Structures are given as structure tokens and as C-alpha cells.
Amino acid sequence: MFVCNQLSQLVGQTLKNVVKPPLQLTLAIIKPDVCKDPNRLNAIKNMIKINGFYFIRSLMTRMSELEAKDFYSEHKDKFFYWRLVSFMSSGVISCHILAKHNAITEWR
Known about the structure:
- Pfam families: NDK.
- InterPro entries: NDK-like_dom, NDK-like_dom_sf.
- Residues 23-108 form the Nucleoside diphosphate kinase-like domain.
- It is a single chain.
- The chain is α+β, with helices and mostly antiparallel strands.
- The protein has a single domain (22-107), classed as 2-Layer Sandwich (Alpha-Beta Plaits).
- Helix content is 50%, strand content 23%.
- It has 6 helices and 3 strands, in the order H-E-H-H-E-H-H-E-H.
- It is globular, with a radius of gyration of 21 Å.
């Protein structure tokens, strides 16, 4: 019985090292004030890479006020909602789909 337990533990440890959980995807939006400065934007992207995230897709775009209202609608009743909508629709944003094991928790 002892040998079986040891083998079971060894196999379990080996599988943990070999079988990795699937990558999770998460969304990163870099705000307009950062996107105005290419050096700051590149520094942030480099930090994202250094922290083990993979860039799956990236897009520089501008969020309209209507899109910002819709995207942040969960905050509609909060005091900062209109300021957030105004800020996020004020200029170009950098959107990224990122991948990593446990990406959602790691990104927060």
C-alpha cells in the first residue's frame, strides 16, 4: 500500500509539471492619456509581456460615447460613470486580448 501511495503521489506531481491548465483570455484596455505618449504605451506593453502575458490580438481604436456608455453600463448608477464615459471616449485607446494561465486573476 505504501508503494502505491508513493507511486500515486509521484505520478500526480509529474502530471502537474507536464499537464498545464489551458490558457485563459482577458481584455486589456490602455486608456487615452497613456496612448498619447508612445513611450509610456510601449513601456506598459513591455511590462505586460514581462509578466508572462501573450498578445493574441491588438487594436488601436477610438471608443464612441455610445460605445463607452454601453461598455461601462454596469457602473451606470455610480458617481464616476459620466466621468469614465467621457474620459474613455476622449481619445485613442489600445485594446488587447491577452492570454496566460490564470489570466483573469493575474490581470486584476
